[in-house]
Structures are given as structure tokens and as C-alpha cells.
Amino acid sequence: MKFRSLAVVSLIAFVCATSRADVKFRWNPGANSLLNNSAGAIAANNATVLTYVSGDANIDFPSDGILSNTFGAGLGQDVFVGIAAGNGLLGRYATSLYEIPGNDYVGKFVYAIVLDMPVASFTTLSAVPVGTYYGVTTIGQVSGVPTPLVAFDSFNAAATTLSYNGGNVVTNLRVIPEPAGAGLILLGAGVLAIRRYRARRG
Questions:
Q1: Under a CB-based contact definition with an 8 Å cutoff, are residues 47 and 84 in contact?
Q2: Pairwise CA distance, residues 70 & 79, whole Å
Q3: How far is 191 from 48, CA to CA, in rounded Å?
Q4: Average pLDDT in the chain
Q5: Contact indicator for 33, 92 with CB cutoff of 8 Å
Q6: ∠ at Cα 58 (143, 163), nearest 5°?
Q7: CB 147 within 8 Å of CB 107
């Protein structure tokens, strides 16, 4: 009987150790935490919240206006987790809960790039129109302290479902084209200028 009980306990411990450790969190900043470039509150669902996960508490986004799936390199690399959520409330980048399965994000930090464009218009990072206004949060904080993601525990949901605040965001930066895209734009402008010049001379 003791051996059977021991085997059951060992099996439960093994299953717990090898089970997926999902993460569950949301952005939940205070009132007036999201303003546009004219200092006006952005209406609900008129902003798009892009969440990035970072291997450390540093934000590697270079603020050059080029949106990418990754920023930085190595263990501290920042990765877009593929979640584009709408701001659920007027003047706040509050979102509904995200639940991401697997162990990959446990112990990592989060931050968000908030676009001043309706979430219904978002498809991919590369399709965000040039000139779109955006702002960047700080590393996600709980009670003012940068806090990594923890494994979600359904038995202790209150402690493992994190509500993050990333400070106040003003969308006063603007998206610019990627270098390759910018090169194509310049090439096209150059060809057009040459054609106009030849048309005038001919």
C-alpha cells in the first residue's frame, strides 16, 4: 500500500513538473494613461496595444520608429508575442486578459508599444501605415515594481494573474518605413524625378 501511494505521489509530482506553465496577464493602467499627440484621451478601441516580452528588464526598442518582431539580441532580446489588443477604456491602454500557453515566457518582462490606430485596422507590424503615431510604455510594473511573468496557477489565480501598469503613454512618435522600404520609396521618387526632367527637356 505504501509503495502504491508513493508511486501515485511521484506520478503527480512528475506531471506537475513537466506540465505547461501558462502565463496570464493584462495591461491595467490608471485613468488618463493614454493620450494622443494633441494631449487628448484616445477613445476605447481606437488604439492598438502591441505587447513585447523581454528577457530582462531593459527595453531594447530603439525609438527609431521602425516596428519589428524583435529588438536587441541574446537572452535579453525583446519579442513581439503576436498580440494586438484594443484599449478597452477611454484614455487608458487597459486590455482584456492575455493567456499564453507554455513555459517560454515565465520569468520574462513585458512592455507595450501603443499605436494611435483602431485595433480593427491592425493586421501585421509591416502593414502599419507610415506616419502612424505611437508611444512606448515602461517595463510592466505591479505596485510600482518591474515584475516578471509568473506561471499561472488556477488554485492561486489572484497572485498569478498579473495586472500591469506601464506608466503614462503619449502617442507623439511616428512610424517610419523600414530601411528597405525607405530605399524603394527614394528609388521611386528618383525615377519619377528623372522622367519629369526628361519630359521638360523633350
A1: no
A2: 5
A3: 36
A4: 86
A5: yes
A6: 30
A7: no
CA atoms of 167 and 64, how far apart (whole Å)? 20
DSSP secondary structure, the chain, as one string: -HHHHHHHHHHHHHHHHHS---EEEEE---TT-EEETTSPBPPTTSSEEEEEEESSS-----SSS---SEES-GGG-EEEEEEEEE--BTTB-----EEE-SSTTTT-EEEEEEESS-GGG---GGGSPTT-EEEE--S-EETTEE-------GGGHHHHEEEEB---EEE-EE----HHHHHHHHHHHHHHHHHHHHHHH-
Q: How many C-beta neighbours within 10 Å does residue 61 have? A: 17
Give the confidence band of 188 by pLDDT, cuts at 50, 70, 90.
Answer: very low
Q: How far is residue 72's CA from residue 166's CA, in Å, rounded to a whole number?
A: 20
Three-state DSSP string of 114-130: EECCCHHHCCCHHHCCC
Query: What is the model's pLDDT at position 201?
Result: 57
In whole angstroms, give the CA distance from residue 129 to residue 79: 21
pLDDT per residue as tens digits for the range 7-37: 444 434 444 444 568 999 999 999 999 999 9
Number of residues in the chain:
202
- pLDDT mean over 169-174: 98
